[in-house]
């Protein structure tokens, strides 16, 4: 696992966007796994700006999002479909037919989850999965106790996630308590993982995910199992890490990061 600490949020975001853009440019029919949440908004703004500047081409890219609330239609402003259209898809040259999220209105939940897994497999698997981390350590909506071998399915959200996300809903109690999510096992199948963690609010959970024991109580810790994972943090989110000196030394001197310093 590579852990890269940038001095501020803007440079952490820029590095994340550059890693994604470079990967797409190296393989135009890229399969990109996407995440939602406040942290990712700036990443998508950066990718949209790079697309406008001709620095990254989404015309052949296919995307698969991690998760979607159950019970919200695509045109609900709190659905993740709406978020993705609003923050990324409407601003880049992607074919909307190549963008995928679970259907929050699906009546047969098991069939929807299976179809989502099948769509990713048919596409040849995810080349790069972008991840954030929740206050409770979740990746996607893999809440504490989610098996590391779990697959896409409907899940019940924790009170912690409810408290974190209900602020976006009006009234807050209208937030769905269930969601479809790729499983931890699904996420670990991606050929590369890029995780972005920013802000002091995430410092404690970042340290548990990156340096703590593997535990389903912090599903973000599963990233330690992945053979090609890079975690990018700003200085505030990295404040609880003991590996900071090594991480900085490696980023500043390992030739593989020369283009990104
Ligand atoms: P945030 O959410 O970016 O809004 O903090 C991240 C997450 O819950 O995965």
Characterization of the model:
33% of the residues lie in helices and 16% in strands. The chain has eight helices and ten strands. The strands form two sheets. A seven-stranded parallel sheet has the order 1-10-9-6-2-3-5, sandwiched between helices. Strands 4-8-7 form a three-stranded antiparallel sheet. The chain has helices spanning 9-26, 38-52, 80-87, 109-122, 159-165, 184-188, 203-211, 244-253, and strands at 2-6, 31-34, 62-65, 67-69, 99-100, 128-131, 153-156, 178-181, 193-197, 229-234. By secondary structure, the chain is an alpha/beta fold. Bound molecules: 2-phosphoglycolic acid. Residues 37-39, 132-134 line the site of 2-phosphoglycolic acid (PGA). 2-phosphoglycolic acid binds at residues 37-39, 132-134.
Q: Which characteristics define this entry?
A:
single chain; 261 residues; alpha/beta; 7-stranded parallel sheet; 8 helices; 10 strands; 33% helix; globular; binds 2-phosphoglycolic acid
Strand content: 15-25%
Distance between the termini: 18 Å
Q: If strands are numbered along the chain, what order do they take across the biggest sheet?
A: 1-10-9-6-2-3-5
Q: Work out the radius of gyration.
A: 17 Å
